[in-house]
């Protein structure tokens, strides 16, 4: 499917694969973003394939599919790429099977077992190869101390994603993995290896699932630092959903420019030859 306009003065790209962020892009809390249903329908009706690339490290793809279905958004499990599963997969592909301690949800911990790792309790006195941190709503002072101790014994520090927060209903900032990891880094003096966007790992996996070329793929998201910078680094076209008129540049021209900037999904649907539809 082709975007019916020029991007940065170039010829119209032949976009065949669409990658979408989730939180803050297609939904807020438990409500779909205005225009989300119509946009996905428009893309699929024109023959485009749709995948979802999210730094969500708390839920499995199955859980995310169920959540989206309740909002009327179609998202097969096979089309969802998460930091939940991506972190364990990255570790397996990079280091092989590891002994890991996990701070995160039950789904995040289980994903590391499925990837073939030996998951050890954080309070285990034995040494582990890595401590892996996701969005952990049960994070405590005691966990912070236990993680720092494991790192002092030589464990790697792996983080699912660097996001400090994700947008909630009413503009609330919901603390994310990056906030927890910042505390760990400050205490331990150990720098984390981040797996999620803007790192290339989730983008590459999505492209492999889609059997897609970067030059025919676009990333759509609301977070400039993760979605747009990461997408550009992966060689993708990018569309920034900038609802609040945020400034992209840091004043020194070091941030890449999104190929298209829109304030709402319904406007993107219009750019694709559809109508302004907030459904």
Automatic annotation (TrEMBL):
Coiled coil, from the record: none
GO molecular function, one term: phosphatase activity
Tree of life domain: Bacteria
InterPro entries in alphabetical order: HAD-like_sf, HAD-SF_hydro_IIA, HAD_sf
One of the Pfam families matching this protein, by short name: Hydrolase_like
Cellular component terms (Gene Ontology): cytoplasm
Key words, A-Z: Hydrolase
NCBIfam families: HAD-SF-IIA
Name the record gives this protein: HAD-IIA family hydrolase
Organism, scientific name: Cohnella fermenti
